[in-house]
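Work Package 3 (structural annotation) set out to generate three-dimensional models for the target panel prioritized at the project kickoff. During this period the team completed the workflow that converts sequence records into discrete structure tokens, so that structures can be stored uniformly alongside our sequence database. As a representative example, we reproduce one entry of 510 residues exactly as it appears in the project archive.
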Amino acid sequence: MSAAFSRQDMIKQETPAREGERDGRTRMIKAAETLARLDQRPAYSPIVVAGLVRLLDFTVATAVGFLLHHLYVVPAVGFDIAYAFVIPAIAGLAMLAFEAVDVTHVGAFRQPVSQGLKLAGAWTIVFLATLAVIFFAKLDGVFSRVWLASWFVAGFLGLLVERGLVALVVRRLTAIGRLERRTVVVGGGEPAEKLLKDLAAQRHSDVRIIGVFDDRSDDRAPDVVAGYPKLGSVDDLVEFARYTRVDLVIFALPISAEQRLLAMLRKLWVLPIDIRLSAHTAKLQFRPRSYSYIGDVPVLDVFDRPIADWGVVVKWAFDKIVGALALAALSPVLALVAIAVRLDSRGPVFFKQKRYGFNNELIEVYKFRSMYVDQLDAGAARLVTRDDPRVTRVGRFIRKTSLDELPQLINVVFKGDLSLVGPRPHAVHAKAADRQYDEVVDGYFARHRVRPGITGWAQVNGWRGETDTPEKIQRRVEHDLYYIENWSLAFDVYILMITPFALIKADNAY
């Protein structure tokens, strides 16, 4: 467990009134410490996994069709262009049939044998439909019946083998926790107990309950609820989620407890997690389309993580591809700046600084050194101001033009702890008017729900450089939160395109 997540983090500075409270608190701490040692790697999105398997199904079906065409049809009559259209069309129709019989989700992938019958039925229906079209359209002389029959048999066998391999991979990923949503329940008493039992009864669910958090400390909040340990209060949950992976929070509280819910949500919305409100015991009924479901359990969506599922894949690919191209294209500029820094003053070319990254984790970003080596301020305890004597001659130019930030492409391409576009990562001890940023802006840490970036919406709108007043950091955070709530790939491209023009107009970076 991380040293930062210690007993002192979870034990409040108070004297327990009873020995039993002390023992209960100790048990909660031990349970939380055990859970925090679990594999911290992020889970794979079931939606992405299902999409990749659909693509694999299509590829296998299409490949078998073309292979048999090459082996049987081409030697007899040569290549027939009609097959090039029909094979992908039949394979695509098969994908729709698989979707209709519900064999394209992670739960189905874990059961290749039982789901094989559904797969066989869907595959057969597709080929029967194909035969009907060929018959009624009088195309029986166009397509080889031997080829079609061979594709029906070989294609199904190929799909069975592929699904068997997928099952092995999915089971392995499930066993190591990469295909499960680590879930905590907030609340106690009968509602939480019923929710926990209903979730545990779900077959083939990706939800893994790791514990319960409850602000109450009386007999309504026992140490164990439905077999799951109580791990602390909502304040403890915020700290807990910083040091171990939590994917989903479900509130087992009545909708009528409005003030209590709002107070808890104010604390939790800064975390990059999905938050749901259990609705299975609510007397107030909404229209069916108002609910989402975890298995058969209805919930109301409160907060979603800003970038999820295919969005994560798209942003990752964009960062890696565009970042690598930018690194290659700008390598001459990087080399020239490095030479200038080295000739201007003694000391290393690069400067590494600890900053806050995704989910408030500490990352180390690279910059060109812009200060004299004996006056470096790794924690940014003192803001750089106009004509700051700590800044070198070259440093003044590269800071003004943001050329000192270019080495952060290394963070994007190789380390993966920065994105090209996102909220700018702030130094650990950065301040506005002698106050830490999180003391100035309520909900400041909500900007850490996505990976930070080299440039961002706040920067291209002029909110970069010195933050000597509370208003400046407030406006910067407002723009960061707007970006998070409105993210899209097109938005990232737009910000990158206008960044050079924003740098030209900037007059508050020193």
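The chain has three domains: 46-175, 180-303, 310-505.
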